[in-house]
Design a protein that fits this description.
Elements lengths: L3 E5 L4 H13 L4 E3 L7 H5 L31 H21 L2 E7 L6 H6 L4 E4 L11 E3 L4 H17 L2 E7 L28 H18 L5 E5 L3 H7 L7 E3 L10 E5 L17 H11 L6 E6 L5 H10 L6 H17 L1 H20 L9 H4 L20 H8 L8 H5 L12 H32 L2 H35 L20 H26 L21 H14 L14
Parallel strand pairs: 1-2, 1-10, 2-3, 3-6, 6-7, 7-8, 9-10
Antiparallel strand pairs: 4-5
Length: 589
Amino acid sequence: MRKISIACQTENLDEYRRLAELAKQMGATHLNVNQIEPSMWLWNINRYDPYPNWGLENPTLFKFIVPEELKKHYDSAYAARNLEMLKARAEILKEFGLKASFRGMEPAYMPESVYREHPEWRGPRCDQTRRARTEYFAPCLDNEELREIYVRTVEQLCKAAPIESFSLLTNDSGGGLCWAEGLYPGKNGPLACAHIHMGKRISRYLSIFQEGAARAGLEAEAAVFHVDNVDMISSLPDLLPGQSINNRTSSGGSATYTIGTGTTYSDHATPVNLMPRMFMYAENIQAFQDRTDGNITYAFRSVKDIEAITFAQKYFGKIGKGPAGVCNALTEFAATLVGKENADDLVTVWELIERCIRAFDYLETGGHIFYLGSVHQRWLTRPLVAFPGELKPEEKDYYRAYQFQAQSEADADNMCDLQGNCWLSGYGAANLLNKTVACNLPLINKAINISEKLISAVPDSYREQMKKILLKLRLYRCVIRNANNVVSFQEILDRTDYSVEPKDTSPAIGEQGDIRYFKVNQILRNEVDNTLEIISILKEDLSTIITVDVKFKSVMNYGSDIIDDLKKKITIMENHRRDFERLYKSYNR
């Protein structure tokens, strides 16, 4: 039978129970049980290196159960907390007659101390070399001793929660398979397993989860993702029943169709929290509703994303063909929220949002610009200054400690260095981004204008939601402006010779002696004003408008102190405004 799974983050068991109730109403068969507390302890081993941040929230086996052989190397108390939560979720699933599914990452890198004790377990180097300051190694699952430990751990996990479906990421975020083509440092691994055909290796790897489940009395499917196409094609003939690679089975068919996006990484409106993506959900449903050759996974961002969940519940299998089918379904649904008289306006807001987000989709390489830059490089809270390397610790540490940069401090000072990749540098990149912003800000402005009018027009039951949509649109506009300001600012610095004495380069009386100084001052003023607007937005509603983590602030997210950081940014920029006169001629002294 077709599996219909729900993947969604929840903040507590009450939310999870609500999610289970919704899943049951939608006819789902499976619900994910794998959400974990971020593994901050792994990052705390070496705060000098930001790379572990990519895997802090990735569920792995030993983040739930620590085998006896690894107790010296893992945080057993941390794992116990995750296991208790998994068991509690399993009890809720039992209440609603749902089955458990697991989305995680394996084989995940192990602390170096494990390999010092068991050198024969060391598998491939799996870190992204420009994003890590130290080397990270995944374990070799061709090692029979270690493989048995994994099977035994899966068995214990499945006894804690009856998991019948495993979906696993590899070759990414601190995980990898021996001798895989897709490993970031290149194809590598121990000589002991170099002779094993990749198809046999992947099939035996997936069998770990099926064998462990079988020992617990369950029949499980196992899927792996992020496998290079060369390895995938050569491995398909070796797959066993219930196994798939990149959604392909041994017969070549698709195993699972995904509707929506369940992560901040793939939601290109991040760090705006739960920006309405109704057109994305509707088009995904339309594309897959008539397919009968695979399973369905609904990937929701939160239980609070109630409009997307309700729409999926009501309209799967009922959306007509083509763009008209999508628009008709969304208009009909919008009428249930705001009335027929306001439905067209709300759908227009949804459509403008989607058009704008998709216009920025191309700004992605190993992560979207608003994820790698706005969050990971702390663009929103980081000051624009002429000499970032001269900032005192009290002016720099508040953002540098949470900036993802594994290279030199000079690289860290370059605001367009996104984790060792400078694809946004130079006039061409700045000009292209500027044109994209110029073309799409009018779309957001139009959506803001419509939303402002809708607040007083919609029923009382939807007025608070409409206010939140307006705040999210305003924040999204600020995120766009901030990215454009940062890239334009860095482009000017990059073509500035720091060794040359400032001189008058412009005859224009209003350009302060150097056109670059004139432009820098424009950017600085724009960014200060933009930051002030962000502060005003977040003062109205911090908890639901921007993605923050109150308990676990890390490179991957902002904390609840973001407003203080924004204020600090403005103060530092104003304190160092005159520093630019060391680079560009100015007559204002």
